[in-house]
Structures are given as structure tokens and as C-alpha cells.
Amino acid sequence: MKVGILEIMALLPQSRFEKLYNLFVIKQMASVTPQTISVWCRELGHETFYATYYGIGDIQSCFPDDLDILFISSSTINSPLSYAVGKIFRKAGVQTVFGGSHAKAFPADCLRFFDLVVKECDKNLIADILAGRFEPGSYISSTKSFEDLPTVEERLPEIKGSSLFFKKWQSITTIVPTITSIGCPYTCNFCTDWNKPYQLLPLDRLETDLTFLSKNLQGAVLAFFEPNFAVKFEKVFKVLEAVPPESRIPYMMECSQSILSPSRIKRMRETNCSFFAVGIESWADYADKAGLGRRSSEMEKFNQTLENFELLKENQLFMQANFIFGLDSDCGESSVTLTKEFIGQTPYAWPTVNIPSPFGGTPLFDQLYTDERILEELPFSFYQTPYLVTTIKNYDPLTYYSKLLEISSVVCSDDMLKRRMEISRNWTHKFYYRLRTGGEKFLNRFYREMVERLRTDRAFRSFHEGESVVLPEFYQQKFEEQLGPYVPLLSQEDRRPNLEQMNPVIS
Ligand code: B12
Ligand code: SF4
Predict the structure, then answer these.
(1) Could you count the other beta carbons within 10 Å of the beta carbon of residue 313?
(2) 398 φ/ψ angles, rounded to the nearest 5 degrees
(3) Which of 27, 33, 324 to mutate for ligand 1's pocket (most ligand atoms within 8 Å of CB)?
(4) What spacing in Å lies between the alpha carbon of 456 and ligand 2's midpoint?
(5) N or C: which end of the chain has fewer CB within 10 A?
(6) How far is CA 108 from the centre of its chain?
């Protein structure tokens, strides 16, 4: 059989800056599961065609005309484009199978556009799909996630396809995605992994991959694209530290603060960690992830976090601090003041401040859905910062966007950029600080426009206050820009999400 595997990682870029960002940043964010499925299909004797779409290029030309089956994956924000592409291939007689974070979050909606929708998968489930064992229109799942993935060497054709230009040339940062674990021990209410038990995958594969990468694909960065890296710190670091220092390739990771300590940070630096992101989320909640008791105060979490970050400062790592602003635990001035203060005191950590999005399968979704706080007319492409798809408990929309504007103005200020340039000792960091400051300026302009729109346009404000269900023209237009030539494929009915939750048939 001819099997296609497509990961949709972006909608159509809206500016030259966004095009550049997609080319150098989004292109490098390919997930491990589609690559894994591609290898499995090859091992099962099929001819495979793997491609990623990062907002540039022509999707259909990546696949032969006589394709039999196409696996598509995307997160919720890119799902409208996935739906349109699914329709094109389905019409051409190709069987379509949809998986990934959106499929898990909103399966009932996905079933409107694909033959099969997948929750968890393993090699057996993929073999059963290829053998035609499922009725079209089914939502299916393996009992649990796969227990391991192919080595980097086995995934090399896919990695070249996603991370290199024309499968040959490396980018400014060329990323090789991998994971060492699945699930997470924490239970953050906004996260789809809130109830997925933590499971360490076999570490001999990591060992094999590190050896392979140090001899091949030199200059590439290994990205641990998993929920919470090194929860089993000692076990994972035993493998990383076994590599001779001169052969250690740079790596990126995301973790919670609770795993960080001065000695561990030193070990991260010595094993060549080049970037890491820490989820701070909100000052008023998620204290357990910061290594504090659940009942700790905002100030305790702030002080502890600042102390941890001070220890990280000397390490010349590109750090990112992830926040969410607008959860029910945020209220009044203090959340904003503390975030601005933190940003000002840590120029060596890039802050991302996210708007909460209600992804299906999370306690946050369940609560907002029950409370009728989700603006149901908004298409899924708006389930991302800088868009607001819910009402916020403790701020009206105008106040909320004004607060975001305040924070963003600190992030992209000339003063912060100057301080970041002064402390960066290598050109890649300088490049990324400039790129991200440019991105934040776009965001800042957007927040300013939103504040103005909410102040002056009554119908727009009333939509965001949850009083009107008429989708403002502003969003109609934006949606059409995001989808470009694919717009005619999605009717008004197709664009309105079906938020119904359902359980899969376990295979
Ligand atoms: C690592 C990670 C990232 C990394 C890497 C992303 C990547 N491409 O792999 C980075 C930092 C780049 C990232 C970016 C983003 N992320 Co992210 N990320 C995660 C994280 C922490 C782990 C995902 C993961 O790989 N798990 C390991 C794999 C093996 O497990 P899995 O994804 O559950 O996959 C299983 C099934 O879903 C299925 N499956 C997966 N893919 C496919 C594909 C097919 C074809 C099939 C059949 C099955 C299938 O099989 C797997 C085994 O059972 C999750 C949160 C979490 N705790 O899970 C968020 C998460 C996926 N991210 C999320 C979001 C919102 C984003 C961003 C949109 C943020 C932003 N605004 O920029 C971007 C989008 C990136 C993009 N261009 O699409 C949301 C997605 C929610 C949604 N419904 O869309 C999540 C769920 C976090 C959350 N809020 O709960 N992310
Ligand atoms: S720590 Fe991260 S991966 Fe774990 S539940 Fe919280 S947000 Fe999800």
C-alpha cells in the first residue's frame, strides 16, 4: 500500500515575519509520533511518504496521486487546515486517519472530517488500521501509548524530511525530536496529560541515539519533546553522563521547577543542555510543580522561583519561563505585578505568557464547558494566544487584554532587549532574542488593537462577555486569512466546533 503521513504544524503565515518564524522555528517542531508511525508502516512492508507542513509549500505535491491511506495529525489550532486537507484527500478516494493532540481533545468534531480518529496508538493498532479492521466513522485507541519508538537512525529519513532543508541542509538550529518518557506525575488542570501516569521509556534507545548522533548529524540539537523531562533524573542523567564530554551533543528539555537544584543544574550544563523551559504557569497555583506545598502563597512561589532562576543565570543556557495568565486563580493586580517584576529581574529567561485554552479531556475544559464560559462560535484556530475563547473569572475582557498589554510591553521593551543583548555571550542567543522580541512586538500591537476594539465596539465586547453568540466579523475575516485558498472547503457549519466529548473503542 502507499501510505502518507502528514503533520500539519501551522496555518498560512500572515506576514513576512511569520513566514520567517515558521521557516526557522515552527519547521523544527515536528512530533515523534507521526515519524514513528511512518517507520512502523515501512517495517510493515508499505511504501511511505512522510511530510510536515509548516505554513510554506504545497501539501498535495508531497504525496503520489494513487495514495491509499493518509495519516494526518495536528494540534487544535491547526485543525481547520487539517479538516480541509482531509476533505481533499477523502474526495480523491484516499482513506483518512486523524490522530494527535486535537484528535484526543475533540474526537466528535474530528469524526465529521476523517474516516478514523485515533486516541492512543501503538504498532498493533496501526497494523490493524492498515489491514482495514475498523469501520469508517470510528474513534479508536490502543489500550495505552506505545512502549517505545524507533531509534534516530531508523527515523532518519523522517528527521531529514522534517528538519533539513530539501532533506540535505541544516537550519540555524536543526532539531532531532525524541522522548524518554510518556505522561507526567503532576495533575495541572489545563493539561491533557493531567491523568496520564508517568512512564519512563527504555533508556538503551537513548544511549544508542546519543552515540549515533555524535557521529552523524553533527550540529543538530536533540529535543526532548515530552511533557516533563528527567522526572527520573538519576536514571536519565546516568545515560547522558556516560557519553564522553567531547561527544556530548546539545539538547533541549522542558521540566518542572521541582526537579531543579544547583547540583542538577550543573549536571545539565555539563551534559550540554542548551535550552530548557520551565512551567511556572501562575503565581497563585501549581505550587507542587515548584517543589512547594500546595497551600503556598503567591509570594512564596515568586521568591522560590526567583531563587531557582538566579542559580540558573550563570549557566549560559537559553531559558524559557512559561506562564498562563487568566486562570480562575488569577485575580486583581498581584498576578500581573509579580509577573512583570519577575520578567524585569530575569532578563536571561525568555517569558511566554499564554492565554488559557479549554482543550477537551482536561478538568479545565469540563469546568468551563459546564459553566458555559466557552465562546462556542469561535473556530478552533483561535484556541491559542493571543485569542481569548472563554470568559475570564476575575477580569472582564477589556481589563484582561489591558493587563496582557502591560505585561507584553515589558517583555518587548527596548530596555529588556538591551539587557538581553548585554548578557548573551553567543550569537544564536542574540539571534533568538531579536527574533522573539520582534514576535512579541506583533503580539503587543495585537493586544493594543484588542483593547481599542473592546473599548469602542459594543457588539465585539458583548460577544467576549458571553452575551452575544454572533461571531464578530473580525474573527470571520481572520479565519479566512488563516486558511487562505482552503477557505471554500469549510462551510460555516464546519467552522463551528462540536465540543461534545466521547470515549474511544479500545482495540
Ligand atoms: C512536547 C510538547 C510540545 C513541544 C513539541 C511538540 C511536538 N510537535 O511534539 C513544543 C514545545 C514544540 C510544543 C509546541 C506546541 N504545543 Co505542545 N505539548 C507538548 C507536550 C508537553 C507533550 C506532547 C508529546 O509529544 N507527548 C508524547 C507523545 C508520544 O504522546 P501524545 O502526544 O499524547 O501522542 C499519543 C497520541 O496522541 C497518539 N498520536 C500522537 N500523534 C499522532 C498522530 C497520528 C497520525 C496518530 C494516528 C496518533 C497520534 O499516539 C501517541 C501514543 O499514544 C504536550 C502536553 C502533554 N503533557 O502531553 C503539549 C501539547 C501537545 N501542546 C499543546 C499546544 C497548545 C502547543 C502549541 C500550540 C503551543 C503554542 N501556542 O505555540 C504548540 C504547537 C506546536 C505545533 N506547531 O503544532 C497542547 C495541545 C492541545 C491541543 N488540543 O491542541 C498540549 C496537549 C498541552 C496542553 N495544553 O494540554 N509542544
Ligand atoms: S507538569 Fe506539565 S505535563 Fe505535567 S500535568 Fe502539568 S502541564 Fe502537564
Answers:
(1) 15
(2) -65, -45
(3) 33
(4) 38
(5) N
(6) 22
Residues 334 and 263 placed together within one structural domain of the fold? yes
The whole-angstrom distance between residue 238's C-alpha and the CA centroid of its chain comes to 28
Residue 480 — φ and ψ, nearest 5°?
-65, -35
Strands 69-74 vs 273-281: parallel, antiparallel or unpaired: unpaired
Tell me if 191 CB under 6 Å of ligand 2. yes
Distance (Å, whole) CA 163 – CA 60: 19
* C-alpha span between 248 and 215 (Å, rounded): 10
Lowest mean pLDDT among 286-300, 352-366, 445-459: 286-300
The verdict on 206 and 332 lying in the same domain is: yes
* Total number of domains constituting the chain: 2
Ligand 1 lined by 281 (C-beta under 6 Å): no
Structural domain boundaries, residue 137: 2-146+502-506
Local structure of residue 34 (DSSP, 8 states) = H
Give the integer Cα–Cα distance in Å for 135 and 129: 10
Going by C-beta distance under 8 Å and a sequence separation of 6 or more, which residues neighbour residue 151?
Answer: 205, 208, 209, 212
CA of 183 to the centre of ligand 1 (A): 11
Give me ligand 2 centre to Cα 83, in Å: 28
389 CA to centre of ligand 1 in angstroms:
20
Q: What is the pLDDT of residues 255-297, one digit of tens each?
A: 888 888 878 888 998 999 988 899 999 998 887 777 777 667 8
pLDDT digits (tens, 9 = 90+) for 134-182: 999 999 999 999 999 999 999 999 999 999 998 889 888 899 999 999 9
Residues 390 and 445 in one domain: yes
| Residue 470 forms part of a structural domain | no
Rounded CA gap, 13 and 24, in Å? 13
What is the C-alpha separation between 455 and 462, in angstroms, rounded?
A: 11
Q: Which CATH number fits the domain that encloses residue 30? A: 3.40.50.280
First-to-final CA distance of the chain? 22
C-alpha cell at 75: 494540534
How far, in Å, from the CA of 311 to the mean position of ligand 1? 30
* CB distance 21 to 15 below 8 Å: no
Confidence tier at 381 by pLDDT (50, 70, 90) = very high
pTM over 0.90: yes
Q: What's the CATH code of the domain at 173?
A: 3.30.750.200
- Backbone phi and psi for residue 134, each to the nearest 5 degrees, phi listed first: -120, 145
Give me 72's grid cell: 494526518
Residue type, 473: E
Do the beta carbons of residue 257 and residue 280 sit within 8 Å? yes
Pick the atom of ligand 2 nearest to 192's CA.
8
Alpha helices in 457-490 (DSSP H): 458-464, 473-483
Q: Is 499 helix (H, G, I), strand (E, B) or coil?
A: coil
Q: Mean pLDDT, the chain, as a whole number?
A: 94
